[in-house]
Amino acid sequence: MKDFSIGCKPRRLIKAKFIVVCSMLFLVVGCQNSTLRYDLNEQQKIYIHETTKNYGGLIELYKQRLQRSDTEDTRYKLAQIYYLSNDFEAAKRTLSPVLNKSKNDNLFALYAHVESKMGHNDTALEYLDKAIAINRKNGEAYNIKGIVLLKKKQYDAARYAFNLARENFYDENKVTNNLAMLSILNKDYNEAYKHLNILYTKGYRDQTILHNLLYTLVKLNKMQLAKSFCLSHRLSNDPEILIQELKQIEPVDAIKFNEITPTQSDNQKQYTTEKIASQQVSKTDTVVKPKKETNSQTTTKSEISAKLSNVTKLETETEPKQTAVTNSKTDTNLAISKQNKQANQVTTQSTILAVRSGEHGKFSRITFETVNQLTKSQYKIEKISPREFKLSFYDVTLPTAGINYIINRISRSDRDFANITGSLTTEKTLILQIKTKQDSIVKDFDAGPNSNGKAHCFVFDFYLENK
To answer: What pLDDT score was predicted for residue 239?
Structure first.
């Protein structure tokens, strides 16, 4: 019996050690799985915020990541989001600690973007030269340099920089647009029209391209074609007044430096039409009881002022539409006839395919994707109070996920929205009740087809009245 006890002790000891080792392994594996799940959750949140352009959410995520591990890459990504949200001071503050030791050409290019936005063009050129010294194939750095040189009115040097950007495979369409802007500044409208028409014939139809083409047509004194073009693309309800305004405006006063994307490789997936629309005020506020004595001439003037803000923008993201190209005057007139015919037809049903929401610098946006283009007769905006709005959509077909899907999609943007509720009546009227956190106004407009041309986008922007 004694011998048996002595023989058992080592086995018990081995068993105890085995249990301890296994416990440690489970603990390590558990920690690894937990870390992996955390990383996946964070990446999923980043993807969602990028898709909805929720810059506030992205900033918080990257700030938390920076607190856990202060790396150059995280600072770079956080500065990108600050830049996109127009907080240039914060972007500069984020990048400054790593400038002296960085060897990242894209980081220097982004910092140059920021300095240029803040009006420090000489400093911007200094850091662009640093970026190019590190990587002479950085086409984006050359493109930014061209824009900065344009601001300094060094036109020949700007053209040289743009051509270097093209040689180094930077986005051909952005470079073409920037060369068109350079030609407009030089008042070489034939050359500008040639560059813009290249983009137009490729199928690009964003508001910047269209307004720049209209501007060059007016400056080339092709008034009848300009009027037809204006009507065909619905650039104004009163084209003659808009054309007269364009005749008087000088290029140097019209030029807008709008460097939207700060990196060449990390472009966010977003609709071109939304980017352009975020720069403009395309329609007047919609209220329940508009004033009877509204002066139509004043309304038209305010509309024109908004339209002029789109003329000659630099480095604007453009995305081709899957539509037929109309270059000639005859094709333009045919397009007008087609649009007039469509206007006389009453669409009885709106099929909602998707709903998106996101936060921009000065407003929160709700975008509806529908099978057919949404018309004024198919929806209504009612301002119940300064912070309460009612959106009604008539005779609609909802996505398969139902009304809760729409409410959840809108609720993701919670910076300005306090509460969203919805209902669908027996007459198939979708009613959305939206409460904002501060006094707000709504601007609505048709943003055109989506990126693949298979759906139409209609936008509702909620601006805070104190901004």
So the answer is: 85
- State the alpha helices, DSSP H only, in 88-138: 88-99, 105-117, 121-134
Q: Is the domain of 405 the same as that of 457?
A: yes
- Tally Cβ neighbours within 10 Å of residue 135: 17
Inter-CA distances, 349 with 14, 339, 448, Å: 75, 19, 18
Alpha-helical regions (H) of 327-432: 329-344, 403-411
CA 106 to chain centre: 21
Q: Is residue 18 part of a domain?
A: no
d(CA 233, CA 229): 6
- 3-state SS, residue 418: strand
Q: Which residues span the domain enclosing 367?
A: 346-464
For residue range 79-113, list pLDDT tens digits in order: 999 998 889 999 999 999 999 999 999 999 999 99
Q: Looking at the structure, tell me whether residues 310 and 362 fall in a common domain.
A: no
> Do 328 and 375 reside in the same domain of the chain?
no
Q: Is residue 271 within 8 Å of 319, Cβ to Cβ?
A: yes
Nearest to 392 by CA among 373, 376, 410, 413: 376
Tell me, yes or no, whether 410 and 443 share the same domain.
Answer: yes
CATH code of residue 451 = 2.60.40.3500
Looking at residue 363, its pLDDT comes to 87
Helix axes 105-117, 72-84, angle to 10 degrees: 30
Task: Say if 234 falls within a structural domain.
Answer: yes
Comparing C-alpha atoms, which of 229, 284, 288 is closest to residue 445?
A: 284
Burial of 313 (0-12, 13-18, 19+ CB in 10 A): buried
Same domain? 333 vs 446: no
Q: Strand runs (DSSP E) across 277-416, as ranges?
A: 350-359, 363-370, 379-385, 388-393, 396-397
Tokens of 369: 């994707």
Number of domains in the chain: 2
Q: Does 66 map to a domain?
A: no
State pLDDT tens for residues 355-381: 988 888 888 899 998 888 888 888 999
Tell me which H or E stretch contains 274: helix 272-277
Q: Looking at this protein, which amino acid is placed at residue 424?
A: L
151 has pLDDT over 60: yes
- Burial pattern 355-379, b for ≥16 Cβ within 10 A else e, equals bbbbbbeebbbbbbbbeebbeeebb
Task: Write down the pLDDT at residue 16.
Answer: 60
d(CA 124, CA 313): 19
Q: Domain check: are 235 and 361 in the same one?
A: no
Inter-residue contact 275 to 437 (CB < 8 Å)? no
- CA 208 to each of CA 6, 164, 267, 307, 333: distance values in angstroms, whole numbers, following the listed order: 90, 24, 19, 10, 21
| Rounded CA separation 295/300 (Å) | 9
Q: Which amino acid is at 137?
A: K
Q: Identify which has the larger pLDDT, 456 or 8.
A: 456
